[in-house]
Amino acid sequence: MLIYFGFQIPQTFAQSEASDSILSERIQFIEKSLKQDEQKTRLWWNSWLIGYSAATVGQGVVYFVSNDKSLRQDMALGAATTLLGAANQFLSPLMPRKDSNRLALLASSSRDEKELKLQVAEELLKEHARCEKVARNWQAHALSTAVNVGSGVITWVGFKRNVWAGLGNFAINEVITEAQIWTQPLRAKKDYESYCRKYKNGDNTLSYKPTIDWYVGAYPGGASLKIVF
User: Fold this and answer.
1) Which residues contact 16 (CB under 8 A, 6 or more apart)?
2) What is the domain range of residue 122?
3) Which residues contact residue 153 at a Cβ distance below 8 angstroms, ignoring those fewer than 6 apart?
4) 216 has which bridge partners?
5) Taking the model in full, what pTM does it have?
6) 107-129: per-residue pLDDT in tens?
7) Cβ distance 199 to 26 under 8 Å?
8) When comparing pLDDT for 12 and 171, which is higher?
9) What is the DSSP letter of 30?
10) How far is CA 80 from CA 60, 65, 147, in A?
11) pLDDT above 50: residue 104
12) DSSP 144-172
C-alpha cells in the first residue's frame, strides 16, 4: 500500500511570489541599463567637450602667435566654431546623469516599495531613451548644418576667398558635427525597446515634447528640478 502526502500552495500565494520575482527582475534590468547608459553618455560627453575645448585653445594660440593674415582669420573662425561646439555640449539633451545612483537609494523591501520603485525606474529609462531620440532628430542636424553654412559663407565672402575655400570649410565642419551626432549613445533607447517587448507587450512609444514641461522630484538625500523642452 502506497500512502502519499501532499499539499497545494494557495494560488494567490504562488502568484504573489511570481509577481514579486518579476518586479525584482524588471527593476534589475532597468538599473543595469541606466548604469551602462550613463557610463557611455559620460564618455561621449567628456570626449567631445575635451576635443572642442582643446581645438579652441590650440587655434587661439596659433591666432596670437602667427603673422599670416589668412591663417589668423582661419584660426579665429575655427576657434569660434569649436567654442560653439563646446558650449553646445551643455545644451545637449544627453548630459551626464546619476539617475542609476538615485534609483538604487529607493527602498524595495515590500511589494508596495517595489511597485513604486519600478514605476520610477520605468519613467527614468523612458526619459533616457527619449533624450537619445531627441538628440538625433532633424533639428539637431539642421542647427549644426546652419552653423557650418555660416562658417563657410564667412570664409568665402567675409574673408574674400574663392568658393572652394568656403565649401572646404563647410565640409570639414559638417563632417565633425555629424560625427558628433552619430556617435551619441543609443543604449537606453535600445534597452527601452527590449524592455517593452519583454514586459510591456511592445508598447514603446517615445514622443518628443515641443512644449516646456517642469518636473520636480525628490529622492533620498535631495531634490531635483528638471525642465524639458
Assistant:
1) 111
2) 15-136+184-203
3) 166
4) 225
5) 0.77
6) 988 888 999 999 999 999 999 99
7) yes
8) 171
9) H
10) 9, 17, 11
11) yes
12) HHHHHHHHHHIIIIITT--HHHHHHHHHH
What is the per-residue DSSP string for 57-98?
Answer: HHHHHHHHH---HHHHHHHHHHHHHHHHHHHHHTTSS-----
Residue 196 resides in a domain: yes
- How many folded domains does the chain comprise? 1
The answer to the question of residue 176 being in a domain is: no
Cell of 167: 565649401
Separation of alpha carbons 164 and 170, rounded Å: 10
Given a contact cutoff of 8 angstroms between Cβ atoms, the answer to whether 189 and 129 are in contact is yes
Residue 156, in any domain of the structure: no
Question: What is the DSSP code string of 175-216?
Answer: HHHHHHHHTS--HHHHHHHHHHHHHSTT--------S-EEEE
C-alpha cell at 106: 529607493
C-alpha distances in Å from residue 48, one per residue of 31, 58, 81, 178, 183: 26, 15, 14, 12, 10
How big is the CA angle at 18 (ends 99 and 6), to the nearest 5 degrees? 155
Cβ(106)–Cβ(119) below 8 Å: no
Dump pLDDT digits (tens) for 70-88.
999 999 999 999 999 999 9
